[in-house]
Every structure is written in structure tokens, then in C-alpha cells.
């Protein structure tokens, strides 16, 4: 048994080593990336004063507001629809693939693999690959978000089914209910609240990601942002960012309230 | 003869009547109503959007055929292409370093803010202000942050580091302060009674209690930051593997190279996920 002093000394040494390792990783990275921490962080206040001056709304940018809103609402609708379609697909696949309701263990492993594959291909790659065949349209953005979201939701739904529905399922099976009765009377009602909660989370996420996809595929709010940004109309850029902030925060507050009621 | 009816009349016994109303099989609750309402709203938005979607008049059959050809090139015939293996690997390294560095910055500054912002530790008003500021920072997509900083610092890694760090700080502040708020109040009060200073409480009581969730949140953020580093490289030209991906798929249309890059990225993300799982197990068993 080690004495308290020895224990504290050991703890101290361990902490020092961890801090030293993290510090040296930081130093090494900033050296390789050519990042000067001091001038980097002093750029932050400079950036904000610059923002305050150039991003402040002008009469011209206020006139653009209806156009910005229209694109933003289009983007939100796109994020919502891609998430909902992804959720429907993911629910079917998750029921087929989960350990509790699935066909067998091979299917489980295959489904997990597919989900992980879709999740790990970067959104940028999906956007660029789809852009090549589907051209510059909202449909391309929709597909890119859809493919990415499917990967996340399959995994989430499978875990939800395994965690939450197993016991209810067992109870219903004991009464002699058929497979479909078990699915529709036990599994779906049981997992619905968590399912909706995940869908809301993915919608929030996809609204943010839709901006990125928009910049790459030339659609929605991302396109407008890129257009104003590259033509140096910073008052309009500021207006666009303000609109994005408002929509994202409203969505976050709304989905938190919904979550409070359903969970 | 005495009939059953007579007995009933004498004793005042009444035949049990069937209940007037049907027994309710479901209890009314707001949760169910809300779930249906949300589903109806989401499905109608989806229906409207999908029927009004602009598809740029692409013939779906041709597009899917083209997509299959591209996917075939990407996933079945990956090749390093004209860039060569080494430059791609070093670009991958740069993206990974970007992710690690911004996660370190985010974790350190995020922890400080989280301590200040947690409801059970500090002044409520000050905490509320920090939470609102962080919510606003989080609402702006990472790519937009990077583009904003690129105006001041010039396009490149500096802007990428600052932009990614900003979003990481805001995200980790929220995650950490939620973990801190889950701590049992008695632990903190016990230390306060002994007259411990604020930072002693933070590092002797809070830090050891939440270290497991701290580590797992930090690793989740590292994975997100790696994905963001790629996105930023592609959409803001901030260098790294993302930029190579953008050039290969959007300019030189070399899909064999895209495949190679995608496999590299998948390799790193799976590695990160593996490390995260192992670390979590290590801290949970401790």
C-alpha cells in the first residue's frame, strides 16, 4: 500500500507528464502549421472590430432581406426533408439490422458496416461526387445531406431499439404476439420519443451543414453567402449571418422545448 | 318457489350492469400529442419540399448511371493519381494536426468558460451572459467562421485554426458545463465548508469527478473537428486533404484520386473512433 505522500507525488508526476505531452503536441503542431499563437490570437479582437465596422447593416442590405429569408427558408426546408427521408429509411434498416428485432447476426454486422461507411465519408466528398452527376441543383444538396444523415441515424436508431425496446418486446412476445404486432405495438411506440429527439438534433445539425453544402453545390443560403462574400458586399454578408444565427437559435430553442414535452 | 329475482328484491342486490363507457385503452398525455404534431409538421414540410424541388432538369436515369460510373471509379479503382502518395499523406497529416490543435485550444479555453458558466459554481448573471454568447457562436457554421477570419488573417491555416477553434470553444463550453452541472452539490459544499478556494474546488473536486465525460466529449469534438478541417479545406481553400479533395473532384475530375483520398480519410476517422472507444473504456473501468 502506498503512503499518501507517495500517492500524491505519483499523481503530481502523472499530471505533469500529461500536461507536457499536450503542450508539446500543441507546440509541434503550431510549428508545422506555421501558426504564430501570439499574432493569431491578437487577430481575434482585430477581426471583431473589423466585423463591427463592415458587417453592420446598411439600407442596401436591409433591402436584400426578403431574398435572404427566402433562401434561408428553402435551406431549412431542405434540411428538414433530407432528415425526414433519411429517418424513414434508417428506421426500416435499423429494425432489420438491430440485435433485438433484426433478422440475424450477419445482417446486424453488415448494417453496422454500411452505416459506418456512409457516416465516415466526408460531406464534402458526397457533395462533390453528386455535383458531378446531378449538376447544380437543390436535389444535389438534398442527396448529399440524405446520405450522410442515413449513416448517423441507422446507428442511433439501432442503439435506441436495443437499449429501450428489448424489455417491452419480451413482454409482448411472451403473450404470443406475432413479429409485426411486436414491432407496431411495442417497439415503435416505445422508441418514438427518442427517435423524434434524434431527428430534431439532426435537423439542427443539417441546417448548419446545409450552408457548407450550399457553398460547394451553389444552392440555398450557402450560395447567397458565397456570392456576397466573393463580391465583397460585406454588409449583405453580415445580414446573411445574422439571419442564420436567428434561425439556428430559434430551431434549437424550439427543439429543446419539444424534447422537454416528449421525453 | 323462490326465484333469483325474489332474492334480489329482498336483499336489495342489483345485477352488475356493464360499465356505461368503454374502458380507455390509452391515457391522454401531452407527450403523444406533441409527437404526432411534430410528425405531421415534419412530414408536410418534407412533402411540400420534395414536390417543389429544383432538380435542374437532370434526367434521373442518366444521372444515376453517371453516379454509378463515378462511384465505381472512386471505390473500386482508387489511385494516388498525379499528386503522388507522399503529398497526399502530408496533406492528410496537416488536416489531422489542424483538428488536434483546435481541439486542444477548444478544450483548454472551453473548460475555463464552462467553469464560469456552470450554474452550480458561479454568479448566475455572468454565467447566463457566457451561455448566450456561446449559443450565438455555435449558431454560426464553422465554415462561415473560417471565411470571416480569412478576411483578417488571409486565406490559409491561420484562419482555419481560429475559425475551427471558435466553434470548438463554444461547443465544448456547453458540453463541459452540462457535465459540471450534473455533479452532486454536496461535493462542492463539503469543500466550500473547509474554506477551499474556488480553483482548489475546481481542480480537486470537479475535475476528477467529470474527467471521464470530459475525455469522451473532447474526443467527440476531435472527430467533428477532423471532418470540419476537411470541409474547411475544401470550401475555404484552407489547405490540407480537403483542398486536395476539392481539386481532384471539382477541377481535375480525377475520381480515382478522389477514391484514394476518401479511403485515407475513412482510415483516419475509424482510427480516431477506435482510440475514443478504448479511452472511454479505460476511464469507465477506472
From TrEMBL, chain A:
InterPro entries: MetI-like (IPR000515), MetI-like_sf (IPR035906), PhnE/PtxC (IPR005769)
Listed transmembrane segments: 16-33, 76-97, 109-133, 139-158, 179-203, 209-229, 236-254
Membrane topology: Multi-pass membrane protein
Superkingdom of origin organism: Bacteria
Subcellular locations according to the entry: Cell membrane
Coiled-coil stretches noted in the UniProt entry, renumbered to this chain: none
Family: Belongs to the binding-protein-dependent transport system permease family.
Protein known as: Phosphonate ABC transporter, permease protein PhnE
Source species of the chain: Companilactobacillus keshanensis
Gene: phnE
Automatic annotation (TrEMBL), chain B:
Cell compartment(s), UniProt: Cell membrane
The keyword Membrane is annotated on this UniProt entry: yes
Residues in ABC transmembrane type-1 domain copies: 92-276
PANTHER family recorded: ABC TRANSPORT SYSTEM PERMEASE PROTEIN P69, PHOSPHONATES TRANSPORT SYSTEM PERMEASE PROTEIN
Principal location: membrane
Protein family per UniProt: Belongs to the binding-protein-dependent transport system permease family.
Keywords: Cell membrane, Membrane, Transmembrane, Transmembrane helix, Transport
Organism annotation: Companilactobacillus keshanensis
Transmembrane segments: 33-51, 88-116, 198-219, 226-246, 258-277
InterPro entries: MetI-like, MetI-like_sf
Domain of life: Bacteria
Keyword Transmembrane helix: yes
Protein name: PhnE/PtxC family ABC transporter permease
Bilayer topology term: Multi-pass membrane protein
Stored Pfam families: BPD_transp_1
Amino acid at each position: 500500500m502506498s503512503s499518501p505522500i507517495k500517492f500524491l507525488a505519483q499523481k503530481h508526476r502523472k499530471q505533469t507528464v500529461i500536461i507536457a505531452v499536450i503542450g508539446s503536441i500543441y507546440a509541434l503542431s503550431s510549428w508545422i502549421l506555421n501558426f504564430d499563437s501570439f499574432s493569431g490570437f491578437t487577430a481575434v479582437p482585430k477581426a471583431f472590430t473589423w466585423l463591427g465596422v463592415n458587417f453592420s447593416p446598411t439600407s442596401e442590405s436591409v433591402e436584400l432581406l426578403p431574398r435572404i429569408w427566402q433562401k434561408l427558408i428553402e435551406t431549412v426546408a431542405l434540411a428538414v426533408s433530407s432528415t425526414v427521408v433519411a429517418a424513414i429509411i434508417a428506421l426500416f434498416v435499423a429494425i432489420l439490422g438491430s440485435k433485438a428485432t433484426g433478422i440475424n447476426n450477419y445482417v446486424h454486422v453488415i448494417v453496422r458496416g454500411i452505416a459506418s461507411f456512409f457516416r465516415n465519408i466526408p460531406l464534402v466528398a458526397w457533395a462533390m461526387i453528386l455535383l458531378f452527376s446531378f449538376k447544380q441543383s437543390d436535389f444535389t444538396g438534398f442527396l448529399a445531406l440524405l446520405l450522410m444523415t442515413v449513416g448517423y441515424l441507422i446507428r442511433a436508431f439501432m442503439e435506441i431499439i436495443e437499449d429501450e425496446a428489448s424489455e417491452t418486446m419480451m413482454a409482448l412476445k411472451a403473450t404470443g404476439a406475432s413479429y409485426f404486432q411486436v414491432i407496431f405495438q411495442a417497439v415503435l411506440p416505445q422508441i418514438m420519443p427518442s427517435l423524434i429527439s434524434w431527428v430534431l438534433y439532426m435537423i439542427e445539425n443539417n441546417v448548419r451543414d446545409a450552408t457548407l453544402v450550399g457553398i460547394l453545390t451553389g444552392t440555398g443560403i450557402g450560395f447567397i453567402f458565397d456570392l456576397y462574400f466573393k463580391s465583397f458586399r460585406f454588409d449583405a454578408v453580415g445580414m446573411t449571418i445574422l439571419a442564420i444565427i436567428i434561425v439556428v437559435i430559434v430551431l434549437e430553442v424550439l427543439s429543446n422545448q419539444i424534447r422537454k414535452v416528449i421525453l | 318457489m323462490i326465484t333469483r329475482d325474489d332474492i334480489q328484491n329482498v336483499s336489495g342486490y342489483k345485477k352488475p350492469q356493464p360499465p356505461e363507457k368503454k374502458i380507455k385503452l390509452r391515457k391522454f398525455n401531452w407527450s403523444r400529442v406533441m409527437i404526432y404534431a411534430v410528425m405531421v409538421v415534419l412530414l408536410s414540410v418534407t412533402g411540400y419540399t420534395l414536390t417543389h424541388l429544383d432538380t435542374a432538369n437532370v434526367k434521373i436515369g442518366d444521372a444515376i448511371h453517371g453516379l454509378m460510373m463515378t462511384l465505381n471509379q472512386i471505390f473500386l479503382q482508387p489511385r494516388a493519381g498525379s499528386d503522388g502518395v507522399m503529398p497526399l499523406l502530408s496533406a492528410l497529416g496537416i488536416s489531422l494536426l489542424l483538428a488536434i490543435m483546435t481541439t486542444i485550444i477548444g478544450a483548454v479555453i472551453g473548460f475555463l468558460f464552462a467553469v464560469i458558466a456552470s450554474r452550480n459554481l458561479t454568479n448566475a448573471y455572468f454565467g447566463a451572459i457566457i451561455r448566450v454568447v456561446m449559443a450565438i457562436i455555435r449558431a454560426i457554421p464553422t465554415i462561415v467562421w473560417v471565411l470571416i477570419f480569412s478576411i483578417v488573417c488571409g486565406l490559409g491555416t491561420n484562419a482555419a485554426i481560429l475559425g475551427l477553434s471558435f466553434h470548438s470553444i463554444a461547443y465544448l463550453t456547453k458540453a463541459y458545463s452540462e457535465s459540471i452541472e450534473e455533479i452532486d452539490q454536496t461535493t462542492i459544499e463539503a469543500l466550500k465548508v473547509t474554506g477551499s478556494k474556488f480553483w482548489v474546488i475546481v481542480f480537486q473536486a470537479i475535475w476528477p469527478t467529470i474527467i471521464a465525460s470530459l475525455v469522451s466529449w473532447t474526443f467527440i469534438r476531435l472527430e467533428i473537428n477532423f471532418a470540419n478541417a476537411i470541409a474547411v479545406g475544401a470550401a475555404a481553400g484552407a489547405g490540407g486533404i480537403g483542398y486536395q479533395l476539392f481539386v481532384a473532384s471539382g477541377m481535375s475530375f480525377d475520381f480515382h484520386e478522389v477514391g484514394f483520398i476518401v479511403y485515407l480519410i475513412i482510415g483516419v476517422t475509424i482510427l480516431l473512433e477506435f482510440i475514443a472507444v478504448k479511452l472511454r473504456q479505460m476511464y469507465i473501468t477506472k
